[in-house]
Amino acid sequence: MSALGRSAGTDFFRIAEQLTDQERSYWIRARDFVDDEVLPVINQYWEDAEFPKSLVERLATLQLVGDGIDGYGCPQMSPLACGLIHMELNRGDGSLGTFLGVQAGLAMQSIAILGSEEQKRRWLPGMARLERIGAFALTEPTHGSDSVALETTASRHGDFWVLEGVKKWIGNGTIADLAVVWARDDGDHAVKGFVVETDTPGYSARRIDGKGALRAVWQAEIRLDHVRVHESDRLPGARSFKDTGRVLAGTRNTVAWAALGHATAAYEIALRYCGERRQFGRPLVGFQIVQERLVNMLADVCAMQLYCLRLARLTEEGNLTDTIAALAKMNNTRKARTVVALARDLLGGNGILLDHHVMRHMADLEALHTYEGTETIQTLIVGRDITGVGAFA
Question: What is the helix (H) or strand (E) element at residue 162, kind and residue range?
């Protein structure tokens, strides 16, 4: 059955009717990939904390990597198509969605938005084909939410820069061919970005183990010990943290779509389960309290869909701001946690089994709720915008 047929009940406000043929094609392609190839195998990857390399490679053959970048070998897609792809991949698995978010939304977009023409031509085509894997090295061990307080330094020595510092929670850090590293210039103290090839002497990455979420994608602690890069590897458009924020605004948009994917999965699983599971002589859907919970879940999913649709339209118009993206990220991750928690409850004891997928989504959402800015930080960003008063430094 096509994606349109499978999702009719979830698309309560008929958003699919607004899709172009190209957008519908991307949506169906991504959804069929998730249903036919991801869901049958992903639980074992998640339980074993094994990176699903064969599934990731399929993203390139299906031409799903590019996040709307124009040209440079990237598949042409609208902001709405990009969002639908991220939604569907996260409906399948948060690890797979996170990989694409780092590869296309952070690493590739940093180069596309802030890089030179030579850098774009050198890196983007291979990254779109997944011949080159990228990482985005911003977060530091002692600076999570306070990401602007970088301790990693960049020192200019003629035509070269020397990078020193430690980064943590860097997606793809141990498997990447290149990392976009953010550091503070020890001369003018401005935040600058550099494309660092990971085989450069002094670059080392250690996988972070023991995670209870996003187990099938690897994050790393990266050490930069006198890493020497050429001036041509510096992103010329990255002159301050505001430029970093231009990239982050786009990924907060992506996280809002990702949260919608998790919530959609949970709602669809719960609806199907409650229709099949019989208790006290009848299906669970025959009980009023079950119907009430399902309707509340659907209401939250529909609200998240409308948020995401508006995000796509604002991106098309060039009017998406960091505060709008922050509000959407805050709202959708919060709503998704509620939807997934209700789904787990409706499945009873079976809800904790990976076979039913909900528990995996529940765990992965805890990471989604935190990365790209916690709910608290997003709230304060929007609060500063509507009041004119900053409640944090």
Answer: strand 160-171
Cα 259 to Cα 72: distance, rounded to the nearest angstrom: 29
Domains and CATH numbers, the chain: 3-128 (1.10.540.10), 134-233 (2.40.110.10), 241-387 (1.20.140.10)
Q: Classify residue 234 by its DSSP letter.
A: B
Quick count: other Cβ atoms within 10 Å of Cβ 391?
10
Task: Give the separation between CA 345 and CA 197, rounded to whole angstroms.
Answer: 46
User: Which residue type sits at 159?
Assistant: D
Sequence-distant (≥ 6) Cβ neighbours of residue 29 within 8 angstroms: 62, 64
DSSP 280-307: TTEEGGGSHHHHHHHHHHHHHHHHHHHH
Residue 2 has pLDDT above 50, yes or no: no
Residue 342 to residues 263, 293, 347, 357, 365, Cα–Cα distance (Å): 10, 7, 9, 14, 14
Cβ partners under 8 Å of residue 326, min gap 6 = 252, 373, 378, 381, 382
pLDDT band at 5 (very low <50, low <70, confident <90, very high): very low
Two tokens, residue 121? 């031509």
- Can you tell me the mean pLDDT for 256-281? 96
DSSP states of 323-391 as a string?
HHHHHHHHHHHHHHHHHHHHHHHHTGGGGGSGGGSHHHHHHHHHHHHHTTS-HHHHHHHHHHHHHS--S
- 3-state helix/strand/coil string of 209-232: CCCCCCCCCCEEEEEEEEEEEEHH
DSSP label of 15: G
Beta bridge mates, 170: 220
Q: Which 3 state secondary structure label does DSSP give 191?
A: strand
pLDDT digits 0-9 by tens, 312-363: 999 999 999 889 999 999 999 999 999 999 999 999 999 999 999 999 999 9
Is the entire prediction scored with pTM above 0.90? yes
Helix, strand, coil distribution of the chain in percent, nearest 5: 55, 15, 30
Between CA 313 and CA 172 the distance in angstroms is: 30
